[in-house]
């Protein structure tokens, strides 16, 4: 899984290089497809429950599962999440980042920065003996203190030889026991944070999830594994600098 995670990060490092006004989401998909097969890996999204592309590209009010197309070109001021999931030697890596297209509004910048910090607050709550529900306890109060909301309808998930397994990783606070963490457990933390209301709706294509109020949404995702003394992030970017601990 370390090797799959490394490839996942490399795909996003390469995607970052081509994000610019005028580039189509279809071109991003082609790049992900090519780099994945060059690495001897397979794109898990392609054909997953009928998903028609190699990655998800979710722009502005799209919360997640946006479908890349040759027609949609990036415009100055957009924010775009690109989510990739290669399978390398049978193991999955799953990560996403939200990128700025040129200069973006202060509102967009604030949302994206808070979403990134929210993901890291969730990650840092993870260690043996902690509870998977500590993710939501670390994220929701922080996000709401900044005036944003946490999407409820999509969650993080266990992964390994399969794409989506237990545990379900809620990014909002939940009642109930939740799974106790032990070394060796691998899962994603992938909060979707909205500028307005948390509610989403899905387009007739069966995939594209949008904010119900049309306001912006951002997301970051890492694959992590519980280690004997803490947590290891398997999908860290080459030049990624996590925020200082709170
Ligand atoms: N990569 C997404 C996740 O984080 C799932 C995408 S499912 C797909 O779980 F079919 F849209 F690719
Ligand atoms: Co995921
Ligand atoms: Co993902």
Description:
- The chain has 246 residues and is of the alpha+beta class.
- 25% of the residues lie in helices and 25% in strands.
- The protein has helices spanning 2-18, 25-38, 106-124, 134-145, and strands at residues 42-43, 56-59, 62-64, 79-84, 86-88, 91-92, 95-100, 149-150, 156-158, 165-169, 186-189, 192-194, 200-202, 209-211, 217-219, 222-227, 230-233.
- It has a 3-stranded antiparallel sheet, covered by helices on one side.
- A hairpin with a 2-residue loop joins strand 5 (86-88) and strand 6.
- It starts with a helix and ends in a 13-residue tail after the last strand.
- The model has no long low-confidence stretch (mean pLDDT 98).
- One cobalt (II) ion binds next to loops.
SSE map:
Blueprint lengths: L1 H17 L6 H14 L3 E2 L12 E4 L2 E3 L14 E6 L1 E3 L2 E2 L2 E6 L5 H19 L9 H12 L3 E2 L5 E3 L6 E5 L16 E4 L2 E3 L5 E3 L6 E3 L5 E3 L2 E6 L2 E4 L13
Antiparallel strand pairs: 1-5, 2-4, 3-14, 4-7, 5-6, 8-12, 9-10, 11-16, 12-15, 13-14, 16-17
Helix pairs in contact: 1-2, 3-4
Bound molecules: 2-amino-4-trifluoromethylsulfanyl-butyric acid (MF3) and cobalt (II) ion (2 copies).
């Amino acid at each position: 899984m370390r090797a799959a995670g490394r490839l996942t990060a490399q795909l996003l490092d390469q995607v970052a290089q081509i994000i610019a006004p005028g580039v189509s989401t279809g071109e991003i998909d082609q790049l992900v497809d090519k780099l994945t097969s060059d690495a001897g890996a397979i794109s898990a999204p392609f054909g997953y429950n009928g998903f028609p592309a190699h990655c998800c590209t979710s722009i502005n009010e799209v919360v997640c599962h946006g479908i890349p197309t040759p027609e949609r070109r990036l415009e100055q001021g957009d924010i775009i999440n690109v989510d990739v999931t290669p399978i390398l030697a049978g193991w999955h890596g799953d990560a996403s980042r939200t990128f700025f297209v040129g200069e973006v509004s202060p509102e967009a910048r604030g949302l994206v920065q808070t979403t990134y910090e929210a993901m890291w607050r969730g990650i840092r709550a993870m260690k043996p003996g902690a509870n998977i529900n500590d993710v939501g306890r670390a994220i929701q109060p922080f996000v709401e203190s900044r005036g944003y909301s946490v999407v409820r309808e999509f969650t993080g998930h266990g992964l390994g030889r399969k794409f989506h397994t237990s545990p379900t990783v809620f990014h909002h606070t939940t009642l109930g026991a939740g799974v106790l963490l032990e070394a060796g457990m691998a899962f994603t933390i992938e909060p979707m944070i909205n500028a307005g209301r948390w509610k989403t709706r899905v387009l007739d294509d069966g995939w594209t999830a949008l904010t119900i109020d049309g306001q912006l949404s951002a997301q970051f995702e890492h694959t992590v594994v519980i280690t004997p003394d803490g947590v290891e992030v398997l999908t860290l970017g080459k030049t990624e600098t996590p925020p200082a601990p709170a």
